[in-house]
Amino acid sequence: MKPADSGWRDRAACAGQDPRRWDVENLPADDPDGAAARLCANCRVQVQCARDALVPVDITRIVGTGHLEAPDLVELSGTVRAGIIT
Ligand code: SF4
C-alpha cells in the first residue's frame, strides 16, 4: 500500500537526480553535515521526507517476496534525508 501523499517525491529537489549524491559515503569528509544540509536546503518537501525517513521499510515488499514471508522491517541509513545524515 502506498502512503496517502506519496506524490511528494515528485516535488523533491532530488527527484530525477543521481541518488548516489545523497549517500553518506559520497559527502565530503571535511564537512558532511554541511554538505547534507546544502543538498536539501531548497527542497520544498523536507517535512514529508523527514516523516518518511521514520517509517521502517519492509524489504520483502521491495524484493517482491512479501506474499511469502513475514515483513522484514529495516531502518534505512547511510543516506541524507531532509538535510540530515541518517
Ligand atoms: S529533503 Fe533532501 S532527500 Fe528529502 S526529498 Fe528533499 S532533496 Fe530529497
Automatic annotation (TrEMBL):
The region called Disordered is annotated at 1-28
Domain called 4Fe-4S Wbl-type: residue spans: 13-74
Residue ranges annotated as compositionally biased, kind Basic and acidic residues, are: 7-24
Q: Which domain of life is it from?
A: Bacteria
* Name of the protein in question: WhiB family transcriptional regulator
In its UniProt entry, the species of origin is given as: Nocardia panacis
